[in-house]
Design brief:
Blueprint lengths: L1 H11 L4 H8 L5 H16 L2 E4 L1 E6 L25 H13 L4 E6 L7 H14 L4 E5 L5 H10 L3 E3 L7 H7 L6 H14 L2 E8 L6 H14 L3 E6 L16 H14 L9 H6 L3 H7 L4 E2 L6 H4 L15 H15 L2 E3 L13
Helix pairs in contact: 1-3, 3-10, 5-6, 6-8, 12-14
The structure holds 5'-deoxyadenosine (5AD) and FE2/S2 (inorganic) cluster.
The site of 5'-deoxyadenosine has 12 residues, from loops.
């Protein structure tokens, strides 16, 4: 019985593989699943929603992931980089709007050497000592991660994308490896970063078994943040012919994640808002507790083109902030001005 599985998952934070498969492959009990996940999030986080200000500072990328619109071989992508001043201006605007976390995200761009990244991070750190600085700039050496940390970065987002070797091979060229991806995540944790990881839902060739492997990997890694969103087709990639992932399965996975990882930070992602007009609101109701509005200058928004029809590409930062405020409120939650660390589990005796 699916309802028993939901109760067991809520109480024990785990199910065996066969049970997870049964739960992920049916939509029969979605309402009950979302209800339990929402209860769990309210127990731990109340109705608080944390915001992260996303600054997409370069769309140059040396990688060639088959799913991604800013992959190296997409000659149609118009490339840009923000200057240090532009990045700092985004932070200033974000701070005034109530953001206490800045996420610097970019492709793997060799122009941004360790020295350049460290210079930017330490300047943000000295201007905003009470804020979190998150980097999301891909796979680097342990030494680079340590240098960024020493400069003042304290969080890092790096989705593992898929925890299955064969599936990883189908999504990425031979120059990349799941082994190195995992090495990066463990190095980051070991250095002391709050780590975020995650995967796309409905990526080409993905099976339910792959998703279960993703959940098992996350159990092993125990990241502070778990970020998932639907895969969305981009016409200028080798995967142009593959359909996008579904809203229903993404929401079901958000709820399962909330029940398996009650204390995790789980964003309702821009991709979720792209496949459905109320995607982010539905994500919050299914257990998500973070939103990540865009702080990038409007002139570059459309160019950070990971997938087709990405939302929030025409709005100023303040508009996005206001829009999300009312979306979050309409879903029954409230945005808080907070650094938004994960809640800590109290020791039980
Ligand atoms: N659809 C959805 N998400 C994508 N990403 C990259 N390309 C796509 C796409 N086509 C995600 C990846 C990456 C994050 C920055 O964006 O998971 O880690
Ligand atoms: Fe960006 Fe609504 S959140 S326009």
């Amino acid at each position: 019985m699916i309802s028993e599985l939901i109760e067991t998952l809520s109480a024990q934070r785990d199910l065996n593989d066969a049970q997870l498969k049964a739960l992920l492959e049916t939509d029969r009990m979605d309402e009950a699943l979302f209800f339990n996940a929402d209860q769990k999030r309210r127990e731990i986080y109340g109705t608080d929603v944390y915001i992260r200000g996303l600054i997409e500072f370069t769309n140059y990328c040396q990688n060639n992931c088959y799913y991604c619109g800013i992959r190296r071989d997409n000659a149609k992508a118009a490339r840009y980089r923000l200057s240090k001043k532009e990045i700092l201006d985004c932070c200033a605007e974000g701070y005034a709007l109530g953001f206490r976390t800045f996420v610097l995200q970019g492709g793997e761009d060799p122009y941004f050497t360790d020295a350049r990244v460290c210079e930017i991070v330490s300047e943000i750190r000295s201007c905003y000592p009470n804020c979190a600085i998150t980097l999301s700039i891909g796979e680097k050496s342990r030494e680079s991660y340590q240098a960024f940390f020493d400069a003042g970065a304290n969080r890092y987002l790096l989705r593992h994308e898929t925890a299955n070797e064969q599936h990883y091979r189908k999504l990425h060229p031979g120059s990349m490896s799941l082994q190195n991806r995992k090495r990066c995540l463990y190095d980051l944790k070991d250095i002391g970063y709050q780590v975020g990881s995650g995967f796309m839902v409905g990526s080409p060739y993905q099976t339910t078994e792959n998703l279960i492997e993703d959940l098992r990997f996350l159990q092993e890694l125990q990241p502070a943040m778990i970020e998932i969103g639907p895969y969305i087709t981009h016409t200028e990639t080798p995967f142009a012919a593959f359909a996008s992932g579904s809203l229903a399965l993404t929401l079901r996975l958000i709820a399962v994640l909330r029940l398996m990882f009650p204390y995790a930070l789980i964003p309702a992602t821009t991709a979720l808002g792209t496949i459905h007009p109320q995607g982010r609101e539905l994500g919050l109701k299914a257990g998500a507790n973070v939103v990540m509005p865009n702080l990038s200058p409007v002139r570059v928004r459309k160019l950070y083109d990971l997938y087709d029809n990405k939302i929030c590409t025409g709005e100023e930062s303040a508009q996005c902030r206001g829009c999300l405020e009312s979306r979050v409120r309409s879903a029954g939650y409230k945005i808080v001005t907070s650094i938004g660390n994960p809640a800590e589990e109290k020791e039980s005796c």
